[in-house]
Design brief:
Blueprint (H helix, E strand, L loop, with lengths): L3 H21 L8 E3 L12 H15 L7 E3 L25 E2 L5 E3 L2 H4 L30 E3 L19 H4 L9 E4 L18 E2 L5 H4 L4 E9 L2
Parallel strand pairs: 5-8
Antiparallel strand pairs: 1-8, 2-8, 3-4, 5-6, 6-7
Length: 226
């Protein structure tokens, strides 16, 4: 029969093992979601979807999580209204679940991510190194995150409707615009648009200078598709 001291020792070892396992499941190496710490530097010109995906992959690799297929959460618009050549951001990112660099689950599925119960918030929307991103109340404000998407993660219609994707992420000038979301779920009021993580308002243009006045820095969301 084990002594009381022996039993306590086994319990202590077990707790230490569990703590070690838990720590192994968090950290940048194990993350499947992040906000880019930097953008392209050219506002809405991300080099198209391929360029945005490469940016996600590069940042993830630098953080030790490059062994996954990373995708930018971005939609594209078709040239014309009836044209089927568009991409929905929600269709690019896999099925989930997704967790940040601290191991906190942001969403368990695509449906969960786009539901009212989504856990994508100021506290969970960290960059690839697990650092907080500047919110609306901090300087410089970086809470506008490029998405080009409607609240359900789908694309905006094409022409004659206005550009909401900076020319499908190829424009870096003053013309055009891109829809952004507020990762901190904060705005000038409590309206649904103001607190939307993926569809709050468009930028003033597509250059870095036109992205910044409303509170952005050309950042976007990255999700591991597998």
């Amino acid at each position: 029969m084990q002594s009381k001291a022996g039993r306590m020792w086994l319990i202590a070892v077990g707790l230490t093992t569990l703590a070690g396992c838990a720590s192994m499941q968090s950290g940048p190496k194990n993350m499947t979601f992040f906000v880019t710490s930097v953008g392209s530097g050219k506002g809405g010109d991300l080099g198209g979807l391929d360029g945005a995906d490469r940016h996600c992959q590069t940042l993830a690799r630098a953080a030790g999580a490059g062994d996954r297929n990373w995708r930018a959460y971005l939609s594209t618009q078709a040239p014309k209204l009836a044209d089927p050549n568009y991409v929905n951001a929600r269709d690019r990112i896999g099925t989930g679940p997704w967790k940040n660099a601290k191991g906190v689950v942001v969403a368990r599925s695509v449906e969960d991510l786009h539901s009212s119960g989504s856990n994508l918030t100021k506290q969970t929307a960290l960059d690839e190194m697990g650092r907080a991103v500047n919110s609306r109340t901090e300087k410089p404000n970086k809470h506008d995150i490029l998405t080009g998407s409607r609240p359900d993660g789908t694309a905006f219609p094409g022409a004659p409707f206005p550009d909401m994707t900076c020319g499908n992420w190829t424009k870096g000038g003053s013309d055009g615009a891109a829809m952004t979301g507020h990762f901190d779920r904060a705005g000038p009021n409590d309206s649904s648009w103001a607190t939307s993580w993926n569809s709050a308002h468009p930028t003033l243009g597509c250059s870095q200078e036109k992205v910044r006045p409303t509170g952005g820095d050309g950042l976007f969301y990255c999700f591991a598709a597998n």
